[in-house]
Design a protein that fits this description.
This protein has about 350 residues and is of the alpha/beta class. The chain contains 12 helices and 12 strands. The strands form 3 sheets. The protein has an 8-stranded mixed sheet, sandwiched between helices.
């Protein structure tokens, strides 16, 4: 009887230790996952937290219909991956090559071009996330390019702006090689990429944003902008109202190297609304159902309306923020984009 009691106690202790071990293992795994978000790839720090799969994990409960869009090269479209568009000879991480992926109709021609800037809070994401959009729009008679640019773990603002403008110059300088009409260049971006695309499109001739990355003397002007849920004005109540500890962890603070309340000048300087005016090209806004990602849009439209510059707005109801990555919202997004581009670049 005493032996049975001892065995029961030992068994109970064993089960308790097993539970504790499993709990500790779970915490270790959580820690590993958290640490794995910032890794080094070719010696460059990368935040791996924003991917279509991770975005799907976050939205699937509220949006069970969401399905990740997979790359699929349409018939009649050819692709060329990892083209070097700029080389930075001296960065904190050594020589740095920046790449883009190009998609174009197989039939020879002189096509309008669309450059795509991915989202990810200026910190995460990569050019592969825009490949499905690039592939399907290329099938509609466009050359499309998905752009790599430096993110905040590697370089703070305005490095990404310099990179994207360099990509525009590269495309224009190599128009003949890739069958591009250099007078018909559009830029699109989603989320943080929408803010960057709008800033690049609105700051033609603003020297402080030009940088010196390749093809000097070639224009970085674009003839159309597509902003997919990208904020246009950082001077928001949301940023002003954050306590400093929360603000320090925000995507914007990590990109600017300072919070809004510490140095609002940097934030305001990067707001596309500051540069919108008579020379701004037509803009298409495609928005989710979340108002906070529309900030500055209506004010920008009011400015452009005074100058009789065309704008178009489509808000897709009942959508999460990264809707462009998922069915059933992917196809409407492609249609809005190509209809707008046809109207502006093919007229």
């Amino acid at each position: 009887m005493i032996m049975d009691l001892k065995l029961k106690i030992q068994d109970s202790r064993f089960k308790m230790m097993k539970r504790i071990s499993l709990i500790l293992l779970a915490f270790c795994l959580i820690g590993l996952i958290s640490n794995a978000q910032l890794v080094k790839i070719n010696g460059i720090p990368r935040d791996t937290s924003f991917t279509p799969y991770m975005a799907w994990i976050k939205i699937k409960k509220e949006f069970p219909q969401a399905q990740i869009v997979k790359p699929s090269l349409p018939p009649g479209v050819v692709e060329e991956k990892d083209i070097v568009y700029a080389t930075l000879p001296n960065t904190p991480f050594g020589k740095r090559e920046l790449h883009l992926d190009l998609f174009r109709p197989a039939k020879p021609g002189k096509y309008p071009v669309l450059l795509l800037v991915h989202g990810g809070g200026w910190r995460s994401g990569n050019k592969s996330m825009d490949i499905p959009l690039a592939q399907q729009i290329a099938a509609k008679g466009y050359v499309t390019a998905t752009i790599e640019h430096r993110l905040s773990p590697e370089a703070l603002h305005p490095a990404a702006v310099y990179d994207i403008k360099a990509a525009v110059r590269f495309i224009r300088a190599n128009a003949k090689k890739y069958g591009i009409n250099p007078k018909k260049i559009a830029i699109a971006g989603s989320s943080a990429g929408g803010q960057l695309a709008s800033l690049v499109g609105a700051t033609v001739g603003v020297e402080k944003f030009d940088g010196n990355e390749g093809n000097p003397g070639v224009s970085s002007a674009v003839q159309a902008i597509i902003d997919i849920d990208g904020v246009l004005d950082f001077n928001t109540p949301d940023e002003k109202g954050k306590d400093e500890e929360t603000a320090k962890r925000s995507a914007g603070a990590l990109w600017f190297g300072t919070t809004f309340n510490q140095s609002s000048e940097k934030w305001i300087e990067a707001s596309p609304i500051q540069y919108v005016g008579k020379n701004t090209p037509p803009i298409l806004f495609i928005n989710s159902a979340l108002p906070r990602f529309h900030f500055g849009r209506d004010s920008v439209i009011a400015i452009l309306s005074k100058h009789k510059i065309y704008t178009e707005v489509h808000t897709i109801e009942n959508t999460p923020h990264p809707f462009w990555l998922f069915h059933p919202w992917f196809e409407p997004t492609v249609k809005y984009m190509t209809d707008f581009l046809d109207k502006i670049l093919k007229k």
